[in-house]
Design a protein that fits this description.
Blueprint (H helix, E strand, L loop, with lengths): L2 E6 L9 H13 L4 E8 L3 E7 L3 H11 L6 E6 L7 E4 L1 H5 L4 H8 L3 H12 L5 H10 L6 H10 L7 H10 L3 E9 H11 L3 E10 L2 E7 L5 H15 L6 E5 L5 H6 L2 E5 L11 E3 L6 H5 L10
Parallel strand pairs: 5-6, 5-9, 6-7, 9-10, 10-11
Antiparallel strand pairs: 1-3, 1-4, 2-3, 7-8
Length: about 300
């Protein structure tokens, strides 16, 4: 079966060039590739090489070693069924550049306490639900409107997020924001980027004051995977038609279940579970992995 190697970069930092692509083709040939061809998806930013004759793990190991010092993403997949019918995206440090809870922590003078718990959870050192409940307790007594204001002040949407959602929706995909964050924030992001669906955790509020508790169910890693399964059944599509993207340990079950699981600038523990990794390109890299060319993007 034909495989496809997708090379992506941030062209403001490193521009892909034909000579490099040619060198990678020659490398694949030297490892036993029997046929190959390349296609540019975006000049200076994304190219793909179709090849066969060698296993994907052999090809990827060789390319990663060859490009070890080059700031380029290298991903290999089967060149079939690449354009997915459903996107499930994490919010914090994926669709957003920030961790919203950490930013709220800064605003209320509890930055180090909250950030320390966040880091342990995202690296898988403590389970997500315990970490979330411990952080939410630190918010007790805060006015819910202040909480929203604190988060929105620091709101930074990751480059390419809007293009990703618009382009996939225009091509018939259902898009879902699936977050361990708070619904008071996820709903704002859903509306801003026009996601079809939105899942998040709900804070218990009494007379506009955060109590420090959460309403069940808790959206943790297992819940994210269950949402993928539920939406596949509702939409009557197989899991191979889905794409999930995230960065932290609580995204691993969702990434493992999806047809294409993408670790976006992931924590080290995530790299062992995501089928594809994007560290240098922005979120448009997820479109390149599906074979979209830049001239097909909706911005």
């Amino acid at each position: 079966m034909t495989l496809v190697l997708t090379l992506t970069s941030d062209r403001l930092i490193y521009r892909l060039h034909p000579e490099l692509v040619h060198e990678v083709e020659q490398l694949l040939f030297s490892k036993g590739a029997t046929s190959y061809s390349n296609c540019w998806l975006a000049q200076g930013m994304a190219a793909e090489i179709n090849f066969d004759g060698i296993p994907s793990d052999v090809a990827l190991e060789s390319v990663e070693l060859f490009l070890e010092r080059v700031p380029v993403d290298k991903n290999i997949q089967k060149n079939v069924n690449r354009r997915k019918k459903m996107l499930l995206a994490d919010m914090d440090s994926t669709i957003l550049q920030i961790e919203t809870l950490d930013e709220i922590g800064h605003a209320i003078g509890k930055a180090s306490e909250i950030a320390d718990i966040t880091e342990k959870a995202m690296n898988g050192d403590i389970d997500f639900e315990t970490a979330l409940r411990n952080r939410v307790k630190l918010l007790a007594g805060l006015n819910i409107n202040q909480l929203i204001e604190f988060a929105l002040e620091k709101l930074l949407i990751t480059q390419g997020a809007s293009t990703l959602v618009k382009t996939m929706r225009a091509n018939g995909a259902t898009t879902a924001l699936v977050s361990g964050g708070f619904t008071v924030i996820t709903e704002i992001i859903r509306e801003k980027l026009n996601f079809d669906l939105c899942y998040g955790n709900t804070l218990v509020v009494d007379s506009s004051i955060v109590t420090g508790n959460l309403k069940p169910p808790i959206i943790d890693g297992d819940a994210k995977a269950a949402i993928l399964d539920k939406e596949c059944k509702r939409l009557e599509i197989p899991k191979c038609e889905t794409l999930a993207v995230g960065d932290g340990a609580n995204d691993i079950p969702m990434l493992a279940e999806a047809g294409l699981g993408v670790g976006f600038r992931p924590k080290p523990v995530v790299k062992n579970y995501a089928s594809n990794i994007i560290e240098h390109c922005d979120l448009r890299g997820i479109l390149f992995l599906q074979g979209f060319a830049e001239n097909e993007f909706l911005t």
